[in-house]
Write a structure and sequence with these properties.
The chain has 94 residues and is an alpha+beta fold. The protein has three helices and three strands. It is globular and about 40 Å long.
Length: 94
């Protein structure tokens, strides 16, 4: 069985203006990443990296509260008992 694992850092440590890819710690970054993970044709696991939450307090990353960003990621990526991507639940229910 093929499994996809992403070991953190959905974005760079500092935001870069003008990029097409989301570079701040906005809700849209996590929603976009969830969509990418769930489009995979194999089970997927994600571990948040430092750029995904601890660096979010930087003004260039949106000036978010780092702890709040980690809590938000927990809600987005870890709210069910199922893996991201294709798994037996999504294969049967879709």
């Amino acid at each position: 069985m093929l499994v996809f694992v992403h070991d953190g850092d959905l974005k760079a440590g500092n935001s870069t203006p003008g990029l097409v890819t989301l570079t701040t710690c906005s809700n849209e970054l996590y929603t976009q990443a969830l969509g990418y993970f769930n489009s995979l044709k194999a089970p997927a696991a994600f571990t948040p990296g430092d750029n995904d939450w601890t660096d979010c307090d930087r003004v260039s990353n949106g000036g978010f509260n780092s702890r709040e960003r980690l809590d938000y990621q927990r809600q987005v990526f870890f709210s069910t008992n199922f893996s991201l991507g294709l798994n037996w639940h999504t294969a049967i229910c879709t």
